[in-house]
Structures are given as C-alpha cells and as structure tokens.
C-alpha cells in the first residue's frame, strides 16, 4: 500500500485506451447491476466516485482471439477493504442526514472494485466519467446528476495513471492511501488531492525520529520502485543534515535475487538501526533470509507501508521484528461506525454481490442460490441472513485504530464541503461568469476544483483538514512500536506522534518509557560508528571514512572541551588550568617558597640556627683574643669574616616567603654583598699570609704590606666593586615579582624576576673571581713554613666554595618553581658552612680541646727539639 512505480505514463495510458477500444470490458454488454463484481451505483443529486480494491489477487483469463475475452477473476476478498466501502457509505449517509452540510442535496456514489489490477482501475475511471457501462474515453453521456469527484486509488502507481486522465478534464481526484511524493507535482497532476501525507513528510519524520534517539550510524533498505527510491532519497538528505551517516543503501529487486546479499550486509554490519522503506510483500523474503542467518539485535524503522501490517505480525518473525518502530497513518475513531458495520445484511446492502461474498466468508456458509467464490464448503451449511456480526471480531469490524477507513471517511467530507462551498458561493472569487455562482445541479469539474484548493473541513475530533499548494494535507502520523502482548502475540502499540503543523519543538513526541526494544530491553539501543567523545577530548575524523567514524584524541596540555563530540579544544585563560578530566578550567595553584610549608620551615630553621654559629665563634675568639692562635690569624679580619658569614646565613630569609617587590629588589643584592664581604676577607687573609712569610726573607720590601690597613683596603675595594655592580643592576634593571607560567604551565609560580640575567651572572661571576684568586694564592702558599699555616685552610675553603657554586649552575637550570629558590638557598648555606668549617673549626678545636698547642713556640715550630 502507498507505493508507486515510475512508468512512462503517457505510453501506458495510450496502450490501455487502444486495448479498451478493441477489447470489450467485463461488463460492456450489460447493465452494471448485472455485473456485481464490478461496481455499484447509489443514486443521488450529486455523485461521487470511488475505486476501492476489495480484492487483491486475480486470475488472468487466456485471450484466444476467437471469442470475446472473459473478465479477469478476482480471488482474494479482504475484510479490511470491505470496511473502506462501508466507511464511504457511512460518511455519505451522515452527510445526507445533516442539515448543515449540503441541505436539500442528496449525495450518491459510484463504487468500483479494481481488484488491484491496473486495467480495471483505468476502466472504472472512464466508466464513472462517461456515466455508461461502455467506456468512451473522451465523451460523457451523463448530463445529470453531475459527477463531483473520484476517490482513489490506494496504490500510488495506479493513482498516477488515474491522475493523468482526470487532470485532462480537471476532475478532482482524492486518494486515501497514495503517498508517492511524485503526486505532489501540480504541473503534471493539477487536480490530484489526498487525505494522507506525502512520503516527503514521512521521510523527514523518520529522519527526525532517528535523530531523536541519537542514532548516527544507519542502514537503509528500500523496495526498488518509486516508493522506495523517492522515500530513501529524502531520508538520506535529512539524515545528512542532522549529522548522521548512512552505512549502506540497498534496494530489493522484484526478482529477489539480491535478498541473500542484503541480508548478509545487515547481519555483518556494525549498524544497529535499519530503516526499511518498502511494502510487507517485499520484506517477507528478506526476513526469511535473516532468520536463516540468525540475525538478532537490529532495530528496524518501518515506513507506513508495513508498520502496521498483519502479514508480518506473526511469531515466526518476532525474534527479528520485536522492537520495530515506525510511522503509521494517524488513527482515529468514527462515532457510531462500529454499530453501522455490524448492522448490514446481505440483502439490503448496496453491492449485493460483495455483501454476499463477505457474508459467506465471515460465517463460513452459503447463501441460498449463491456459489462460493473462494472455494467450496459444505452445501448443507446454509446462511439464513440473520447471523449476528456483533458476535464476530475480525478486521472488518475492528475499529480500534481506524486509518485507511478514516482517510476515506475524511475524503467524502472534503468533497461534500467543497460542494457546499460551491453551492453557497463561499468565496470572493467564486463567481465564474457574469458575476454568477455555479449551479450545484449542473456545474463543471473545474469549477469544483477551485473550491477543492481552498476547502477546510473540521472533523469530529476537532482536527482541521486542508490542502497546501501541492494538494497535500497536514502531515500527521502515529509512531508505533512492535511489542508482545500478554498472550505473546506481536502487536503495534502507539507510543507517540508526528505532527507537521504543531508548534515549534512539538512536531515530534514519543514516550520512550512505554517502548520495547529487541531482546526485550528497555533502554534505547545505540547505533554509532564511533563512540561519542567525552568532554576532555575532541573528534578527529578518519581519512576515507564517513564523518560519523572518528577517533577521540585527548585535549592537549592547557586546553579543555566541555561538550560531547567537540570538534576543537579551547585554551584556558593564563591564570587557569584544566582539571583532571580536562572538561573545565580551574584556577591555577599559586606556588612560592612559603614559611609555612615543610621545605620553607626547614630552610628557615637551618638558616637561623646556622647564623648563630659564627656568633659563637666570634665570642670564642673574643675570649681568647690574646692567645697566639687568634692573634696569628689576623683577629680583626677574622671578626669581619665571622660577621659576614652570619649575614650570608641570614640573607637566606630574603628568598623565603611571598616575593614582594621590596624583597625582590634587595635579596640578590644582599646575597652578593654578604658573600663579596666574606670572600674579600678571605682574600685579604690570603694576601696577608703570603706577604707575612715573604717579608721575613732578607732584603724583602713586603714588610709594609703586612700592615692591617692593607687588609682593610683589600676588603673595602673588593666590596665596593660588588656594591657598584649591584647598585647598577638595581638602578638600571631592578628585579621585580612576576607570575611565571612558562616553566610549569599548570601552576602559577610567583617568583622574583632577575630582569637582567647578565647582571645576575656577572655578580655571581665576580664572587667566583675573588674565590678563584684566593684559591690560587692560597694553593701556592700552602707549603710555607709554619705549624699552622692558614693558607691550607683557605685553599680547602675556597675549593669547597667554588665546588658548591659550580654545582649550583646546572642544578638551578634543571630545577623549577620554588625548588629553584630552594636550590639557591641550599647553595648559600652549603658554601657558608664550607667557609665556617674550613676556616674556623681547626682553630676552635685547638682553643677548646688542644690548648697545649696554643702557644707561640708551637706556632713558630721552635718546640720540635723538645720532642
């Protein structure tokens, strides 16, 4: 139902006209009432026509060209199709009894059984147009009553042929089941209308449903005809717009040779959702092949042509079709219709031959003087005609979900409303000549067509029916889901609806909680080529694959993505950093060497306690300043050295704590000046040691260089040079606090920028120069005669000092953040301790533990003879 097949309509029409002129029709020699299987006529003031396929199978009679051809025999009578005829009768009876619609006008109708045969459909169309039982293509033998419009056909292919003919004469045609989008072409079919939506709306709705469930990896299967091809074409376009992808598109041929290949593709594909745009007849062979392959777990999305079929709703296919979801024509109720259906009888119902067939099929009996049409039964089982249809429940009197019947019921009302508008000239442009309106008793088809285009009918459920510029009504579908009922049978349950005229955002609605999915699952299945990328990553498309196939790449350092399936990652602000999941930016932690943390507390305690050691040594020297060992080592310079060492230890405090501008300005200068004073003292002591020993040689002029003022001069000059260097640095390029995010991007390191690395390394290099000079001079003087030659102590102290600061260079370059500061503090304390230990611990040891060595003779080496 609802499919169409493209054909060369013009040639097909001409061929049928030739056949009809030369081959007599099935009722060409007699009155239509003598041919009950062909059609019926119910008289009225105005007639409407209807072509309804009461049968869906027929037997072709062999043409021998030696006798008059026999009519094709119709074989399979369908109860649900007979219900369509009764729906049309019921609507006509309601209108004839109405005082609001067509008052004082009686509607009559033609009804013809096309038997789903193209020739019979064409024949019936011409029969109704001519008003005679002889088909005359271009001549009307009926002046009164006028034929208003024709209802039919159900099959799009047949409706196309009918529309070509009726369009020539501008006869309004209204179909109750033809859905092909080709019929929306007003240039080809100017008088075609329908009470069912075009497949274009269905395809758009199915694509929206696929998007609604988040399915992005879809398979498409369609019948290889206009219905399937046109439907799939629109679905592919809509799916592409939504960002989903089609994994495969397969068409089922009428020969069914390609069915095994299609079934294998569906079975092996990673696709979990397959949209099938076809009729149920095509699907039977495909489902049988899928059963052989034991295919399960696939969700089939059904077009309206098979979404509510009874042919496939059998237990055999439950393992495949359970959970199917699809579109069906909108269902509704017709008040009083069931009672009307159950009150017919085989003797007083128009179309007695059809009524007899129906009665015999329903009750399994034979009416008097009737022959069984569809097989022989026990002749003794005779129908009385009084059997009660209320005791029978079948597709004929099932009004729980009226779809096609409601559409044909609506079509009758549309025709009646258009006739009513024509009768009362309900239109500003309704006058056709000389300001007069058309006569309801004698009007032209094109005059009624004018009112068809603007008709608006409000039905019993308060829904309004009208046609757009293409002759299509508003698209309304039921969303049905294939489930198992309590008896274990597959049924189609309405779970939502699609309404093209609903307000924005309410076009598509569905109750997901009431649905069943394959294998009895309740959660919505997924169908994706690649799993969605979570926040914190981005999609990277795979070369040569559809856009739905991708891989997820984590966002690079410093970037986030807070959306699913993000295409790009975005950078965090400079003062923020991604969290662990990389889905949001959080403030960067601020890092500096704090007094409150263990490392800062340890360095602070060490610096403070270490600074006390030179103080205690100073007190010791002060107490024993008259002893030879203190006097021999330049007491005043030693005191200055001890003071500078305390300052060296204490300058570590300027490196600990939050880097404030003042602290940054003075800390490197304080460090440079303290150590410059310290190393200058050692250099002065070294010079004094060398000069003192060299001055003892005969004829030496170095005695004047042994004056204490020389030592003070050396200390002042060396310290002033460092002071000048540090002052120039502070004035020209003063250090300042900065937020460093380069060395450790994930944190903000608050540090003091040296501003001028050249000045820093020059200051440090100057200290190295002084230490190197002291080391070389002391090293050369290490063998001078004396029991206690201080040159040896200076040599070791300067060696240790240089080793510490040479090691500091690579260590500082490899460390980051607060550890760079800690490394410099460690170097300060290590080098200071090296000077304290090498320069003063030997003296303190003699003073405290070897006092016998603390006298002049021992220092001068004159007590060796006593031993």
Notes on the structure:
This protein starts with 8 loop residues before the first helix and ends in a 7-residue tail after the last helix. It has 867 residues and is α/β, with parallel strands linked by helices. The strands form 8 sheets. An 8-stranded mixed sheet has the order 10-9-11-12-13-16-17-18, sandwiched between helices. A 6-stranded mixed sheet has the order 1-5-2-6-7-8, with helices on both faces. Among the domains are: 9-76 and 85-197 and 402-466, Rossmann fold; 537-586, no CATH class; 598-866, Rhodopsin 7-helix transmembrane proteins (Rhopdopsin 7-helix transmembrane proteins, Up-down Bundle), CATH 1.20.1070. It has 22 helices and 27 strands.
Q: What are the SSEs and their pairings?
A:
Blueprint: H1 9-22, E1 39-42, E2 46-52, E3 58-59, E4 73-74, H2 79-97, E5 107-113, H3 118-130, E6 147-151, H4 156-169, E7 173-175, E8 192-194, H5 199-212, E9 217-223, H6 226-242, E10 245-252, H7 259-268, E11 273-277, H8 280-292, E12 299-302, H9 318-321, E13 325-329, H10 337-342, H11 352-363, H12 404-423, H13 445-452, E14 456-458, E15 464-466, E16 476-484, E17 490-499, E18 508-510, E19 537-541, E20 550-554, E21 559-560, E22 570-571, E23 576-578, E24 585-587, E25 590-591, H14 598-623, H15 628-632, H16 635-650, H17 661-695, H18 708-732, E26 736-740, E27 748-753, H19 757-780, H20 790-814, H21 818-849, H22 856-860
Parallel strand pairs: 2-5, 2-6, 6-7, 7-8, 9-10, 9-11, 11-12, 12-13, 25-27
Antiparallel strand pairs: 1-5, 3-4, 13-16, 14-15, 16-17, 17-18, 19-20, 21-22, 23-24, 26-27
Helix pairs in contact: 1-4, 2-12, 3-4, 5-6, 7-8, 12-13, 14-16, 14-21, 16-17, 16-21, 17-18, 17-19, 18-19, 19-20, 20-21
